[in-house]
Fold each of these.
Amino acid sequence: MNLNNFIKIRSLFASIRQFLINSDPRFKLSLIGFIVGITSGLAAIGLNFSLKFFHHFLLRFEGDIWVILFPVIGLVATVVLLKYVIKDFDGHGLPEVIHSISLKGGNIKLRSSFSKLLGSLITISSGGSAGPEAPVVVSGAAIGSNFVRFFKADEKIKIAVSGSGAAAAIAAIFNAPIAGIIFTMEVIIGEWAPIYMLPVAIASVTGTEISRLLNGNQIPFTQNLNAVSIYDIVATIGLSVVCALVSILFIKTLRNTSKFLDKFFKSALFKALIGGLLVGLLSFNVPSIRGEGYAFVQQLISGEFSAGIGFIFLIVILKICATSLTLGAGGAGGVFAPALVIGSASGFLFYSILRYFFPELPLNNYALFALVGMSGVISGTLNAPLTGMFLIIEITNGYDAILPLLLVAFLTTTLVKIVEKHSIYHYELITKGFLHRPRTDGRILADIKPLELLEQDLITVEPEMLLRDMIPTIKKSKRNYFPVVDSKNDQFYGMVYFNDLKEFIFNKEMLNSILVEEVMHSDLTTISLADSLLDIQNKFEMTKSWSLPVVESGTFKGLISKATMLDLYRKELRVQTDK
């Protein structure tokens, strides 16, 4: 290619880019949603095919004692890859996406578009208990976040596009476009605003069609439901209690296992080694708990599983333990697939117990209860009843079971929230103060930077200054308070308030004998530009002050007033509600 052709192509590329930057926002969102849907769909399909390939490869070693070491090798390799090579080591990653949308304006680092995919491929292929959905969601969101930079988009569009990548990923991996949209709006973005719905819907449909084009229009799990009766619906009320208990157990085990491993094993590699070894031992005689577990779910709802009540109960407990160990020890993956396994097994277990004690009850077959159990545990674990309901409907074609699915999804979520206020994904962010949903006080304040509020039109005074020397300063100042600062080293000592000077200002003797440092307030609460607006707001409430000095390393930087903060709050509220 000669230089002239190169210049023409570059000029054409720049013109297209400029056209897109200046185009109508709806057209821009639609186009970006379509492109992100394609790329995220391809990422999901690529991971799925890779997992199937390695699964068939490792089947030849089934029953060999060395299979115990496979999860060890997988977890150690995952930690080495993510922590030391790619340097993107922060759990299963979905909290990172939610955090980026909550506080970072939808910005996600580029390496997340492939790091979690590689990590989950190694973790799950080697027998670790985790799901591929969360890594694919992270990848899709990262692809969208980085692609949109090409368009110089504002924060709203960045958030919408990050959510679009997540929707396309879920839709592609499950062949479930509605579930992809609902999961994104309910869990990832947390707001059903029209500006987000357009690209999310386009990306979800596009991701689904990419999946169908390359993988066929297949329902992941086939079943044969009978007509749902009133007895089934009443029985599923009891199942919702079981699903709530299992969801709480899953959430607490996952959280506490991670804390336990972090406490006793400081080395990430040693933690991966111990966790992998325990997973290998647990799964050696119960291979159903390895990997994502989709084959087990299909066996259960199609009637190919014939083990007794004791064994199915063992699978529920061991799957919870294996997943907690895998993710707690540094494995890459999510809780979607494990929740499907745990939920289907819980539903099957509940049905088996009912049949044992009440054989005369005219109940539906095991498939209904396995389906409803999946919906319950997904809903309870993720605190997302709509996701739990529609995901199961789409991946099983279980539209005939919509009434019990609806009932159990919302009942389970309600019961779980009595004990666990936050989902697996949100708990970590909330405890760190990293989760602020759209249009809440926390989110609005989080979008305001302390530097925007800084007032610097104050006139400082010296601590050794006589009060009489302050008179010209008082006349010149538009403020009623004066920072006391040492001009030699810029050290901040306190504040002098005009109201405190009233008793001296008409007394010449006092004006000529009292120093500034004698009337200043030195026990002040100060704030820093590194503080969040929520912290600053709390300090205002605690001190009952209308203004607070900003001090960095002992140096006075300015003042922040509550009036200025409330004014910017109102402006930001108008911006966020204009959608």
Amino acid sequence: MKKVNVFICIICILIGTAGFRPVFAETTTELDEETVTTDSENDEDAEDEEPEEDETENEKILVILAVSAGGEEMIELFRNWPEKLPLSGVSLNYENATGSVNKPIYEFPEGSEMVGEKILFRYKSTDDADKADLTYTTNMSQAGGRVYLTADGEEIDSVCWGNYPDCENTGKLDTKFLVRDLETFLFSLLDSYIPDWVLEREVLTIPEDGGETGEGNGGETNGGDDDKPNVDPKPDDEDEEIKTPVCKGLKFSEIFTYFINDRGEQFVELFNPSSRNIALDECVLRYKNKNYELSGTVPAKKYFVIYPEEIELSLTKNPTKSNLIELVDADESVADSLEYFNGQKKGFALAKFDDEKEVWELTKVLTPGSENKRAEDDKQVVDETETAEPVCRGIQFSEILSYYESEKSEQFIELFNPTATKIRLDGCFLRYKNKLHALSGLIQPEGYFVFFPADFTLTKNPVNSNLIEIIDADGSIVDSLTYFNGQKKAVALAQFGYNDDGSEQWLQTYSPTPSEENNYQKYKTCPAGKVINEETGNCVKILSLSTELAPCPEGYYRNPLTNRCRKYATTTTSTLKECAEGYERNPLTNRCRKIVKNDGANYEVKEEKFEEKSSFVAVWAIVAVGVIGAIYVLFEYRKELFGLMRRRKS
């Protein structure tokens, strides 16, 4: 019986082999040994060839390999190119599903080169931010969005997910990963993915004068435990500057974590008890083993307020275990520390009321920037008198700019007087986050009035909508304005007439006009030589309509990402020796490489019809199996056959 099974297996293998060969042969074409590929211009039979595609996914040189916007938010890039890849002019960008957020999250400095196969980005506030090559500060939406790469303003690769318009990858990235298959170049939604990353690997080289990181280019370099950039090391003869402490004497005074509406309300207050001004520029806040840079000056005997949201810090509202915050000086020493505990209450601050004994108490009186007060001293209301009359009726909000470009002083709130009479603002207030801020001044008929916040700061881009109200002298609400998540840098929110249902129409405009009539500008103003791409809202270079690329001038090479001429990083190419006969200089590396000659025009491409040959082989394989089977049967049952023959003769 075992012998029969072995025989059956042999037959199956032979039949399977015979059946496989013709299928494979149908998809291949065999050439003579001396045959090489030729250009269609030199091939007489070029008309019979199928036209090649201009660009397939597999021909992309720099691609997005993996994306996640969940708890392990990350982006991974892959270099589909065998040599070092110049990254000058390359930008990694993000756009949310509504288009209200569309900006670069990392721009590679001029002269950057990708020397590794992959670059791993992580969101700065994730737990694994130290296990990345670069970090960024723009939090992506799990529900839907798009990540895309641009080179010199042109989009070269992208991937979308969730509810982004017309997106094929409809799954949310709450705890999932979009990962690209490098053979098919299609994305799949995976439950788990571990990026290929090791400590202290070299993936990117950045010139010393181009390695600045942070808000200017949207990201930060990250180098593992030492938090150093993965760039070429500094020369040994550069001694590191020994820094001296500058923030000693500053004390934590108040902290508010358990916000009422959104995280923009959180604050940390410092107090300077000394008789000198103290600059914070070389100091940092350390929270959960991460450092957050500070800036500004704390005047002598004054308070200074730090809003965590503005330094990309999010404090735990009510921690299960006590959380530690430290003020770290320039020399890495701890100038002061604050520990806030479980038991924080919504709308209550933790404030210090006895500096010597370090007495900290919860209070519902929030006093950022001023002396701490207990609950019984909370009388932040409008003074009511017998003659209090409404005086601000008719005033309307007209424009607001919260997301400043450089300094907080750029923030403003604009009011408009649509009436035919003058309106004096004395006695009126702006209410923001349950605090009143007095107004003073005169608005002419059909005139504008601009309020620049001095004793408070507007949340630049609130997570939840923020409410601002005009409060009249009698305590009534004159008008209200709600500005929402999705504010853009240096872009104002202004009123432009009314909608069909009679409600006010508020639009974002790239042309802020404090104290003037509102001006609607849908897109940013592009510099000379660039135009707006209305699909993305980005400025792109004006492209030539020519389909043929002219040779690059001497000293320039063609960028494989954009097909544009770029200047060599060095000017030493003229001093290089000429390449030997049969070799040419590689414009990307300045090395000599062998010239691959296209001399296939001298040979005729012969196509063999594999169907007949393979069918022939298959037939003989079946015949051979039959013969072997017959021999095996005769040999195995020879005794029975001889016995049968004897019986017949007898």
